[in-house]
Amino acid sequence: QVQLVESGGGLVQAGGSLRLSCAASGSIFSSNVMGWYRQAPGKQRELVAELTSGGSTNYADSVKGRFTISRDNAKSTLYLQMNSLNPEDTADYYCAATLFAPFRRYWGQGTQVTVSS
To answer: How many Å apart are CA 110 and CA 82, to the nearest integer?
Structure first.
């Protein structure tokens, strides 16, 4: 019932921009926390940005001022605008939806972002 599909990844030069999209199925936006995570090879998956249904945001220190998370409720789509990309941003990026009581987290399949120098 719940499906998350990411798109928008690709290869970009340092200093460039990409916008990732996450299309969600099901009625999950009103009751969950939506977020973007990333995982580089050999590294632990980390939270990049999250957005609550109430509009609160949280960003990793490494992306503050460069990335912006947003949503379009009518389209059930989550976005991550990534500006001023650098090679350290290279990773697989995953969309996640988190629900509580009980805790549930749904993941998309991921989209690859590669930033060349």
So the answer is: 16
- Tokens (6 digits) for 37: 């995570």
Residue 97: alpha-carbon gap to chain centroid: 10
74 phi and psi angles, rounded to 5 deg: -65, -35
Taking only the tens place, the pLDDT of each residue in 11-21 is 999 999 999 99
Q: With contact defined as beta carbons under 8 Å apart, do 91 and 40 qualify?
A: yes
Written as six digits, the tokens of 86 are: 């650098």
Contact between 109 and 46 (Cβ < 8 Å): no
CA 98 to chain centre: 13
Exposed/middle/buried for residue 6 (C-beta within 10 Å: 0-12, 13-18, 19+):
buried
- Which H or E element spans position 13? strand 10-13
Cα–Cα distance, 110 to 117 (Å, whole number): 23
- The predicted-structure confidence for 24-76, as pLDDT tens digits, reads as follows 987 777 768 999 999 999 999 999 999 998 899 999 999 999 999 999 988 99
Query: Sign of the CA dihedral 71, 28, 64, 45?
Result: negative
